[in-house]
């Protein structure tokens, strides 16, 4: 935050929101986890986010505004361009009654020089408001089209100017655009006569920019330099990384280079370290599920698996679980490929197969280090699976990921890797299966009554009918009349680029193993038998958890049907 910790502490204690002991404990954890103190206060629910910001705003004598809850007229947003927003970290959101003054939300509203510069730029009197970083980022996406326009201009200029100069500017602008659009990865693909930049956003890969072949080659070379990859080598694969700090947030770019027929292709996997400072609730876990997961995290030994297909958010869940276990007096060791996020006070090991450091050999070495908790990035083969099981049997808490489409399916994968049922049964504590589903844009979300055809189809869709009946029986949804059902959708607005959807949330299937289920594993029962008993004991399937999120207004029924 823009004010020193000592001042924030004084403000919160005087407002009776925390005590000295609570502050000291929060500060200790913030230092340990390398997180801002306000993130600890919010995410650990010590102080609600809006209360924290409102209290600070009162203390500094300025009003607070949550831009997420405001409808902002486009004519007001257009008073700033993308460059002004990124430079001054400010967003206009309204005019005063007379139309003579402009209300502007600042992340740091105490820098008077910025206010004066904006008054000259807009020819309006500026009324400063304070807003939080999440609120700011939500609306700042509107300006990504300004950055896109600037990128297209740079691409045109490069065809007639000095390419090396334009390439550096182009890369900086691309990084700004990446910050606003938040893709999970960026693909720079060479074609016969050009290069194409593609962005994967919310799971979909789409073309964004087309570059002339010489400029594309320059861009590839510049990225390789940043990632310390040899620029004179064009026929070998390479993996590396580089990072950039934007608005105080560290963005990590994992670089993968692949020689193709038309030249070198680069994929940038984008990781924003600040987005990992989240809770299980932020990922999409329901309160009941959080209780189940936290209970298993308190065990002194055993295996917890996170399963799902590629790109389903397994790593995010795993890192969130690791951070919850990262307390004083506990030794945590990981073996990963790659190490996607660095976590303070956790010993993380990067797999280097070319140097003989594999998951299996690294795990053997870790066991000699006497850790309490071990994280194996992924169980890929029989040897890694065997050592992972042995680690869980010998008094360690082990967390890992595995590729499967359901929780029960993860058991089959392990069996196919040669893990014996008599070893698996006593070690497995829990499997969390997950998928990612698109969220409805909060700025244009609306409820509606489903068409009669949809309501009539419920009786004919066996899975949907059984799921609704099961959720009603569990008391998770109310109402006996299908006509009472309300669904949600996004109308489409500037903040979601007209799609009605923005961001993704997890849907989960949590299989916790009690004695009955472990007995079924020992008896080598199949997936259907274990699934049946698990559901009888209260496990919700991915589809059922998704249906709850549909009825809660988190996503649409169409998205759920597409994913499940």
Explain what the structure shows.
With 564 residues, this protein is of the alpha/beta class. It has three domains: 5-138, Type II secretion system, protein E, N-terminal domain (GMP Synthetase, Chain A, domain 3, 2-Layer Sandwich); 142-274, Beta-Lactamase (2-Layer Sandwich), CATH 3.30.450; 280-437 and 505-540, Rossmann fold. The chain is 43% helix and 23% strand. The protein contains 24 helices and 18 strands. The strands form four sheets. Strands 12-11-13-14-10-15-18 form a seven-stranded mixed sheet, with helices on both faces. Strands 6-5-4-9-8-7 form a six-stranded antiparallel sheet. A three-stranded mixed sheet has the order 1-2-3. Helix 16 packs across helix 18, helix 18 (421-427) packs antiparallel against helix 21 and helix 21 runs antiparallel to helix 22 (527-536). The chain is globular. The chain starts with a helix and ends with a helix. The mean pLDDT is 89.
How are the SSEs ordered, and which strands pair?
Blueprint (H helix, E strand, L loop, with lengths): L4 H10 L5 H14 L3 H7 L5 H12 L13 H4 L4 H7 L1 E6 L5 E6 L5 H11 L2 E6 L2 H8 L3 H15 L4 H19 L3 E6 L3 E8 L2 E9 H14 L11 E9 L2 E12 L2 E10 L7 H4 L3 H11 L4 E6 L6 H12 L6 E5 L10 E4 L8 H9 L5 E4 L5 H12 L3 E6 L4 H10 L4 H7 E13 L4 E4 L3 H7 L3 H12 L13 E4 L10 E12 L2 H8 L4 H10 L5 H10 L5 H7 L1
Parallel strand pairs: 2-3, 10-14, 10-15, 11-12, 11-13, 13-14
Antiparallel strand pairs: 1-2, 4-5, 4-9, 5-6, 7-8, 8-9, 15-18, 16-17
Helix pairs in contact: 2-3, 9-10, 10-11, 15-16, 16-18, 17-22, 18-21, 21-22
